[in-house]
Amino acid sequence: MNFTQFTLSGVDADKFLQGQLTASTTKITDQFLATAICNLKGRVAFGLWIKRVDDGFDIVLSDDLADDFKAHIKKYGAFSKITLSDPAPIYPCVVDGLPTFLDDENDKDWVNFAKISLTQGNYWLTKATAELFQPQELRLHQRGGVDYDKGCYLGQEIVARLWFKASPKAWLHLITQPNQLSDKIQVVCQFDHQALVIARPDDLADVEILPMMNGLNESVARTG
Length: 224
Description:
Elements: E1 3-9, H1 13-18, E2 33-38, E3 44-53, E4 56-62, H2 66-76, E5 83-84, E6 88-95, E7 98-102, H3 110-119, H4 156-164, E8 171-176, E9 186-191, E10 194-199, E11 209-210
């Protein structure tokens, strides 16, 4: 699995990304945050990780989505004072027990990155899985990647409606992957014999569901 990093900078970088990301730029720090850019139907077009740097934001996503991401920024950023860097490789690794990314290929540790990511719901989307899932189905709001109090962004009306007026029927689970899965179960990402999947709980009756860390085992529905 390969990842690409872009740096988005310029005087309008904050404002531009505030109208793109499901997260609020006010909560982005110097540590990578998992968030998303949705399409107009409220489905995640780009699952990405972002952190704040001195001259803007570093953005990481699957390598096979790099060209689509560049085209997206060119389209929506045409009238904003922003600059998108050339893509550069970045490597999955584990630091202090957490999955993250570093620039040095010598630090690459895909095996442990993937294993820990699955237990933390830290999914990775590729071109094949782009635009299939809503943020809430992916439990992104439970990981700080969706801000329901911020202003408008792409797909915001649908994402907000699902949160305030409805609830997903299927959502993210970690399972031990059998040889054959029901076609009602959508695989988000997988490694070894485990997978993060989107499914209704009833459709997982014959599958071993594994616990995830950080409170990602409860329902995704709004309770208050």
